[in-house]
Amino acid sequence: MAREITGFSNPLVKRVRSLREKKFRKAEGLFLAEGLRILTEAREASMLPEMLFHAGADHPLARDLIDAMEAAGGDVIETSADILSKISGKDNPQAVVGVYRDRLTPLEQVDRGSADIWIVAQSLRDPGNLGTILRTGDAVGAGGLILIDDCVDPFSVEAVRASMGALFTQKIVAARWEEFIDWLRQGAGQLVGTSLNTTKDYQEVEYREPVFLLVGNEAQGLPEAYEAACDMLVKIPMLGKADSLNVAVATAVMAYEVLNQRRRRA
Question: Domains in the chain and their CATH numbers?
């Protein structure tokens, strides 16, 4: 259904704008995604928004999105760039903004055998890191990202933007540590933690699929008890003065090592 909104005081504009705040996202089970690239990635992953806001459909990709929404009976709203700016919170908003149902997958519904690599992150705080880790997961063919304990909201505008569409290709799970470790030990899975408290070089060990790569909080790393529960701890060598890499960079280094070992065995 196509319609037009021209007023800033429209209740729907206020409602959608509120999704920039976590408490409203959680209450409604909805989140915002903006930009043709991200929304097109979602459409190619067979996911359409519940509502699509646009300020004119000049670009072919925008037209494709609108056509797909109308064919599916979705809610298409044409509005102004100023109202899109109000919704997105950006001075120069993207041409389209979508409202999506949140995509959390319950841990018990995860098929661990569906992928050789899974990324597990504990107490992440930075939405940019979370989004970048999702992009890495997509790049290496990971099954998804399992968020442990209290992490930044994966459906925040910043995290969605940083994921560049990978949010729609990766399963996203949220669990407490005890819940995760109990689930993991009920089936196959090698839990590999990154740590400074080991001498094992990350390239000198053998990874056995499915591999669950565990990375810790940006400032604190992994708690000692979590490291103790791992099947193996590995270390990325640091030859300069810094003692560790950014968590998203370290995740990418580890994920590609697992991928490259698998490729060499193929």
Answer: 2-101 (3.30.1330.30), 107-265 (3.40.1280.10)
